[in-house]
Amino acid sequence: MSRAEAALASGRWVKLICGASNQDLVSIEDLCALYSLAGVHCIDVAADAAVAQAARRGIQWALDRGAKAPWLMVSLSDGEDPHFRKAHFDPQRCPVDCPRPCQRVCPALAIGASGGVIAERCYGCGRCLPACPLGLIGEAPQLLSPEAVPQLLAQLQPDAVELHTQPGRGAAFHQRLAQVLASGVPLRRLAVSIGLEGAHGPVTPEQLATELWQRFVPLRRLDLRVLWQLDGRPMSGDVGAGTAHAAVKLLRAVRPWAPPGPLQLAGGTNASSLGLLRPCDGAAGVAFGGMARSLLQPLLQEAEGRGAPLREQEDLCRRALPLVQGLIDPWLGR
User: Which single residue of 54, 77, 229, 257 could bond 193 by disulfide (Cβ 3.0 to 4.6 Å)?
Assistant: First the structure.
């Protein structure tokens, strides 16, 4: 059994989410380097060739220092999804005296002091949309065409693929799955990311479990090993400790009716998540996204100000690694 599979079986699995729309190559390489060195089992990135290359460079940096290789996972969606979008606006339309609340609420630092959105940094959290007092900020979906998926996956050769879906999109899920299979890439796991927000409105946990079973049947028929990512409160783990409750609550509600396969926490996960779990909850592990990135954000900024990546600056690495370990070590030693 591989290290990653053993972690899933024992409830110690930890995944880093770099962001399904995040294309900030320098920060992605640094994040992958530090979190690989700390021992994560999987790193989830955008389905983008340059992003995958940056992630692999970061992983190799860690391997050169004695780390064990995490799986590289790429994220796809079977329809419009908040994880697959970017904000945009025309800064020329902003009033000169605007206090720019959009800039203050952006966790990715993707909005310049006087300019618009820095597209490669934006990962679609959406916090800027209601912040704009004039409603000038829009959003643009970032979805791959059906024709692009097989060729891109064949090029990237990921260890795993994650399909973001919603209740009510079963047909679209099967179509996207067929495109993944057409790539011919042998996958260690096929992750399914889903929450209570459906294509036609919120659903109950029982309805969500039914949707999981509808997706499980073709996956089992195809002999694909599934990983269920339960998205409690998407892209909010860095907002506050209270967001951790959503993922744990969803896990407890769905687990009695869920099909076979490990159940992983996501959406609102942070340093408080593990303390909320009971041994009987059956969590296979956790995925950290916004929280994992925000931990290192100040050091990434400092490194940028110095003109060199964080991983190349020994003093910054010494400060960064304890932060990363403080987040994931409790899960690794669970």
Answer: 229
